Amino acid sequence: MSKKALSTVATRHQVFLERLKTQTSAEFTSILPNLEKAIRDVLFELQIDTLNDLSRRQLLKLLSDLRTAQLQYVNKAKETLLGSLRGLAKYEVGFEARSLDAAIRAAGERWGINELSAKEAFAAVSEKPLSATGSLLEPFIDTWGQRHVAGVEAAVQRAWAEGRTIQQLTTEIRGTKKMNFRDGLMASSRRNAEAIARTSVQHVAQASRSALWEANDDIVEGVQFVATLDSKTTQQCRSLDGKVFPLDSGPRPPLHINCRSTTIPKLPKELDFLDKGATRSSSEGYVDAKQTYYNWLQDQPASFQDEALGADRAKLFRDGGLSAEEFSSLNLDRNFQPLTLDQMAKLEPEAFKNAGLDDYLSPSD
Question: Residue 277, Cβ neighbours under 10 Å: how many?
Answer without folding.
Answer: 12
